[in-house]
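Appendix B.2, paired examples.
Example (i):
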Amino acid sequence: MQNKLLKPRIPSVENKLLGFIEKHVVVIAFFVISAAAMLIRALLFDHLSIDAYNFLIPWYDALSEKGFAGLSQPVGNYNILYQTIIALFTYLPIKALHAYKLFSCLFDFLTAGLVAYVVYKSFTNRPKLKALIAYTAVLLSPIVFLNSACWAQCDVIYTFFCIFSVYHIYQEKYVSSLILFGVALTFKLQAIFILPFLLFVYIYKKRFSILYFLIIPAVMVVLSLPGLIMGRGFSEIFTIYLNQSSQYQSMSMNYPSFWLLFKTEGLDSFYKEFSTVAILLTFAALLTLMIVWLKKKVSFSIENVLIMAFLVSYTCVLFLPSMHERYGFIYEILGLMLAFWFVKTIPLLVLMYLTSFATYSNYLFQLTTDSTTLCVINTLVYLAYVIYLSKQLFKEETDTAVKAKQA
């Protein structure tokens, strides 16, 4: 009797509340994490980066004077689509800086949702929990919220469409994949890091004509119609990117690329020659990977598709000249996704993200880090990924061959 009296009792209302929380813990966690992610971004919204001060805000001011009529002339060095979006910003009753950041942060959440969806659809064991972890990992990644909410950059936008495009390759929806890639490329030139993978799919799968690639420029033209209507030349849709690619005359632009292993000052003196060497080396590295994939007859499971897109984009950024620190955004998100299939890559992922965070800090907060050290770490991480993921890529074929031999 005495023990019964001493036994603590929870009020029925509280008990029901605890039961509700236990039953819907994943949904509740989703809203709590989303709120935390919003708060983090809100705290960074008033930070004015050098890029925003020197470029984004002046572009906004130039377009605010004329509105859509201002699309008749190039403003800055971004494409016509993004200039159209900036023109739309000028009609919003908010600060220019906040408009840029809100748009990019919207895609932070869309990208997190897309990554969570891919993870959810790919696993049968506790898929909701894994999807929640994926959603959290993207939204709370410093690389993601610093890029959008602090820097006011738009790398997450084209990355969203690139990942969507890659996922459609896995689903064998080739037309929609090329449409999505066209949207990505219309937003930013750096989406091109995924193009070699799409070309490999065309050669290997033999499921669609080379003419399907005309979808990409067609999408670019459609999305540039506001500028064309206002008087921009048709050729500007593409020459904007040609001008961007020749704008920087340095082997590395704060990205810890392979070329930092050498004295870049000396290489930059002969930029034309060494940039050509870098492009040819990149081509050779990509070709080597793809020949091996062809010979090994790699399957197109979701994890293999992500591996190939990851290795292609990482190879491009590591070896091409004139790479900025933000250009690794695509492979950083793909690397995060791969960690759900290959847990052993998590230490490499952490090193990759710490390296990127260091380069971001160099630019955003003027924190000095040794570029050669970062370059060595980045190159070793890349090589480790190539070795480990290549083994995983062919594991399915090896297991099948062993079983067939045993039978």
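Example (ii):
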Amino acid sequence: MSKEFKEITEGVSLITGNPKKAIIKLSGPMIIAMFLMTLYNLVNAIWVAGLGGDALAAIGFVTPVYMILVGLSNGLGAGAASAIARYIGAKKKKDANNAAIHSMLITVGVSVIITVPLLVFLKPILLLLGAGNTVDLAVQFGQIMFGGTILMIFTGVGYGVLRAEGDAKRTMYAMAVSSVLNMILDPILIYVAGWGIAGAAWGTVISMALVSVVLLYWFFIKEDTFISFSRKDFTPDRKVSKNILGVGLPASAEFLVMSILVGILNGLLVKVGGTDAVAVYSAGWRVVMMATMPIIAVGTSVVTVAGVAFGSRKYKNLSVSHHYSIKVGFIIALITGVLTFIFAKYIAMVFAYSPESAYLAPTIAAFLQVMCFFFIFMPPGVMSSSIFQAAGKGTTSLILTMLRELVFATIFAYIFAIPLGMGQQGVWWGIVAGNIIGGINAYIWARLYIKRLEKHSKSGENPPKEVVNLNK
């Protein structure tokens, strides 16, 4: 072991040890953090709804652009986590530090490139998205939110750095503080201070700013993380940037793919069932996102654990991470699926409690019961994509997501809904079928890739290009 690698933290010891234990230990805090963030989004919508329909609609028009930035933040965080974890696995701490510094510089560069044109052209963008009479409110909200772009991206990358060294607890603390503070600030700034819709935006920006200060304190003042940001460890290197962006940009694009899928499915639903079909899908999908959140949290943990295994060339651990995470994901999906199926009727009532929407409840319940099968077949696709992100093959992960979310889901939804005449239920089953076929395809692709790595390792042949680049 190199001298620079002697001082290891508990987190690094965890992720370089038993991959099964690491996945469980990292997933728990991530599930809690993601739950709090989801809860915040729900609470935020409730507070803004008190301002009236126009305010809620205005935020709705800003949301598509905001989600792209969230995707970029999460994507660059995944890119940082993958690159740093691979260097940690290879026991190259100086290179891991260098990758972390590159991640921060990329954060600044991307933030500047995005923020200026976004603020300048915000009104035309919102009008293009259909903001209409609510455009002034949308601009008021959007200017504050997008003015804090660098905070959003920095926190995402900061979380990625912490995850890379196995420090899931501090990641959870930071995300939890941001969510809870936001929930506290929203009613104060919106109603007590009288800032209205601007108060909702300032609540988010202030909470991100506070978390950014905490992250900066941990990284640059307390300096008790395994990764350090010492100037002496920084060497400008295009390959390091490529390692980060090679995962980060495709991971960011996956959010865009999902948005495109929603647009396509909404079009199909309107065609076969009218706007009520869209309302059912929109309401039910919120439940699906909450139910599948633990599976996504496990997948996020796999990027770190498998990244370390890849960097250390312990391909057996890579294989174990893949199979074990699918097993854990399947158990979670089975539990959430059974509970959702049993309580679908009661869950549907939450979204159809008013006399005007009560008639939608049976259909929402039926949608949720179909989606239970979506839960069960989700883990192979998610975990396989995580394996490729861990190995620095972000484009492969994006291709798998596109096949699963766009190609297969769209084709089956169309076939079931229109040629087979199943209507909106055909769209639902099309989503499930696409997920099953896409998941099987991703699983086979990942297994073949892992076997190829194991074959090169056992035979002594030249390793794949990405392994050579990492160890240069």
